[in-house]
Amino acid sequence: MSDSLYDVMIIGGGPAGLSAAQYASRAKMKVLVIDKSATAGALAFASLIENYPGLEKPLTGKELLAIFRRQATEFGAEYAEAQVIGVSLQGEVKEIFTMDKTYQGKTVIIATGSMGRKATIKGEADFLGRGVSYCAICDAAFYRGKTVCVLGDSEEAVKEAGLLTRFAEIVYLISPSQRLKVDDDYPTLSIGNLKTILGHTVTSIEGGELVETIRLKDISGKESTLELSGVFVYLHGSKPVIDYLQGIVEVSEDECVVTNRMMETSIPGVFSAGDVTCTEVRQVVVAASAGCIAALSAEKYVFHRKRRKLDWHG
Ligand SMILES: Cc1cc2nc3c(=O)[nH]c(=O)nc-3n(C[C@H](O)[C@H](O)[C@H](O)COP(=O)(O)OP(=O)(O)OC[C@H]3O[C@@H](n4cnc5c(N)ncnc54)[C@H](O)[C@@H]3O)c2cc1C
Q: Under CATH, domain 132-233 is a member of which superfamily?
């Protein structure tokens, strides 16, 4: 193989991709990160991160991401801002296609996150990170004593509403359907500060700097408004970003990339990490840890090692 090949090509520059880049470049491999935009991933939308271990004070998602990026590039990883539109992964030399360029390498790490659900409510995209959230476990603590709503009828939506009742003063669970997809005696539904509104859709999310109001419509078309500070959207769940893979890598029914515990996918030399995989927990610390594992697995693949080299200093 030619020396100009990358050892590791990483698609996605979020915490998963950049942790992988840091570990892979520190292991003296030739590493490329291709990222669509530093502001397109989940972390870039997080207004405040206070639960990433080691942080002495909360940082915005963008600030934390900038630290991840700096660490990776200081260890030698190259960073290219471009959208990946296709891949060729089956051969010994893997190829990644962007509009302007084709990149070639020995291994690929897929780390494109799970921001694939398109915002469908007016104002949803505008207020993401400023009152709109897709993650109660991440953001509940910011809504202590406030009024929030959860949009959805799934068990996940009901559970997340239950979690929010421990922080917010009032939690509205607003379902577009007339029935929730849980039994009537589901324990969460009897929590005192949870109020269920069935058969209503939210038509817009409005406010100034932060969310202040939502507009609702019932099935007869009657409109109303609710004043609140947070809107947690659980309508269709988030969707892993896999469009550019064109079915080459095995994904689950939920369209997340299937990996084993060493982050290996169905294709030799192709690894995956972070929210794009079938992880149960979507958090920065989990994505970063999976990125580390993917990088060490890639290193083992490149150097044909029988065992993974532990990343002890030196
Ligand atoms: C509003 C919000 C608040 C959150 N708050 C917290 C919190 O407080 N604590 C916490 O631990 N977690 C929080 N999370 C979750 C956390 O941000 C994610 O779990 C984490 O960012 C996942 O990392 P990732 O690298 O897998 O994906 P992402 O961070 O989504 O990064 C994916 C990257 O892939 C790139 N990409 C996508 N498609 C392409 C393509 N075709 N070509 C090239 N690049 C591409 C994107 O540009 C992006 O940079 C929050 C999430 C959101 C949305």
A: FAD/NAD(P)-binding domain (3.50.50.60)
Our answer on whether the CB atom of 138 is closer than 6 Å to any ligand 1 atom is yes
CA-proximal residue: ligand 1, atom 26 (nearest): 274
Per-residue pLDDT tens over the stretch 249-281:
999 988 899 999 999 999 999 999 999 999 989
pTM for the structure as a whole: 0.78
Domain residue ranges of the chain, discontinuous segments joined by +: 6-116+238-302, 132-233
Atom of ligand 1 lying closest to residue 84 CA = 42
Q: Which helix (H) or strand (E) holds 18?
A: helix 15-26
Distance (Å) from CA 224 to ligand 1 centroid: 34
- The answer, yes or no, to whether any atom of ligand 1 lies below 6 A from the CB of 40, is yes
Asked whether residue 24 carries a pLDDT value surpassing 50, the answer given is yes
HEC secondary structure over 120-186: CCECCCCCECCCEECCHHHHHHHHCCCEEEEECCCHHHHHHHHHHCCCCCEEEEEECCCCCCCCCCC
For ligand 1, atom 14, name the residue with the nearest CA.
283
Of the pLDDT bands very low, low, confident and very high (cuts 50, 70, 90), residue 302 is very high
Tell me what the mean pLDDT of segment 153-163 comes to.
Answer: 87
**133 Cβ closer than 6 Å to some ligand 1 atom:** yes
Q: So what's the pLDDT on residue 240?
A: 92
Tell me phi and psi for residue 91, to 5 degrees. -75, 180
Q: What is the mean pLDDT of the chain?
A: 92
Domains 6-116+238-302 and 132-233 share a fold: yes
Nearest ligand 1 atom, CA 48 = 8
- What architecture is the 6-116+238-302 domain classified under in CATH? 3-Layer(bba) Sandwich (3.50)
Mutate to test the pocket of ligand 1, among 81, 97, 135 (most ligand atoms within 8 A of CB): 135
User: How far is ligand 1, taken at its centre, from the CA of residue 115, in Å?
Assistant: 7
Cα separation, 162 vs 187, in Å, equals 9
